[in-house]
């Protein structure tokens, strides 16, 4: 074979310094690129064989990755189609851009190594991020082909000579530079292969590993074991998302989930994605158990392209409200070398996003219709997803409104339509607005819930982190519906009817009661009002106005902007004194010091029912209660 030397391109003298300088932070992807190339070459020879265009034995197609620490080399070997010398010139020497100047201009827009490699056809050349010199030994599958060798030291000069490859396929040998010797450590290579190659469709072997196997029995008849070396195969070549749902059972899905997330609780259920028009997409999405907390996102959705891992930053592909799901998505329509700007602009990505939203809504609706009881049992776990989706995606809300559930303090579940039918006749105020009473903490607000129940009112539990926003959303969507926290005011004010209760106090008596309570409380953030309530209601009720409470709760959740203003305001409360309670008459008939003591005791009881009585005030209340009980 005639020896040949040359330069890769007359315009490319700055390519390699650019690759080394700008791509260095993402240098581990060199292995992903080279292994992916090896997989492509292997799949091509399999395809040619299936078409009858290659009639020899395919043999073992396992791709080998090996490290030689002494020689400071990494070798990726495949038994794919190989290349002739002419093909090396075509595929290796012809880089997909015309010159370094144009490259530098385009590079200004590129955000990361993935984008540069993808945009400029540099998959193979990513090897120079870690290598001073790269060598190719290859033998084409074509009849009569001769082995070829290509070598380049990172300058623009290359050399093609006769190679020494005896079997079909390609070896890419990287001579690792001094800055990248971390990649000569086996555990580093193992980690990269586990990350990017775990589900590639062709077996990838990285050395061997020890395995314990049975070795007969000992004198006592107990099994003996011995340790043997077996091939260290990195990947599962047929993950479940490549199979048909009909060929899988529940245990297959659970086993795969445990493989992805070995430390997570088993998921609630899953959705198998499989579409080939107008884009290609496969995958499995799992609903994890979340309860009411937004967990730290350790177990993210993983994005693949033809079984090659790309990223677990899938914000633009998966709707934001489903980012808490787990699982995998694989789409060949998303290039391996994907970038953030690509994801944001690509029309297929937008279609995938819409498709996933629809599939999730359809799955939830199916679960609700097929087995409502099982769906209700899962509601505490999935309610957060559904509410967040209803808030953030209009199309999702339109589907979800039929399977959004409200739960009342009796533990009963209602759809939005069912709940409105349950309460509208009795909880509609004089203005025609149906009031949904709610509690965020049933135990803490127990007395208020009980008062509502005594009047025949129903109370729903709204205790998830996003329920403040969710209630406002429903108030906009539902016709003449208002949510009011059960302790936001006295009940007769929360649901105002035509028949207003009156109390028997004169104006002077009302003024005196207010002055006594103001003196006993001595707190400008507590606004005392004497109310006309049923004699059976509590003597004192402490409330915070519904709108202000919501604003403050949203500020605590990080509402930003104007919300911060409400968060900085002091908490102000209304102290409703029941003018018709016998305790008020007792206060009016007591001497001045006893008046204040009784008022303070009634106020502290109200604080206690809200979990607001603490520290020195709680101690004083206990001591005062002991004195009252002792008749002192």
UniProtKB/TrEMBL annotation:
Keywords: ATP-binding, Chaperone, Cytoplasm, Nucleotide-binding, Stress response
Binding sites annotated in the UniProt record for ATP: 33, 37, 78, 83, 98-99, 170, 340
A Pfam family the protein falls into: HSP90
Molecular function in Gene Ontology: ATP binding; ATP hydrolysis activity; ATP-dependent protein folding chaperone; unfolded protein binding
SUPFAM superfamilies listed in its UniProt record: ATPase domain of HSP90 chaperone/DNA topoisomerase II/histidine kinase, Ribosomal protein S5 domain 2-like
CDD domains: HATPase_Hsp90-like
Protein origin, superkingdom: Bacteria
Keyword Chaperone: yes
InterPro entries: HATPase_C_sf, HATPase_dom, HSP90_C, Hsp90_fam, Hsp90_N, Ribosomal_Su5_D2-typ_SF
Positions of the Histidine kinase/HSP90-like ATPase domain: 26-180
PANTHER family: HEAT SHOCK PROTEIN 90 FAMILY MEMBER
Recorded family membership: Belongs to the heat shock protein 90 family.
Protein name listed in UniProt: Chaperone protein HtpG
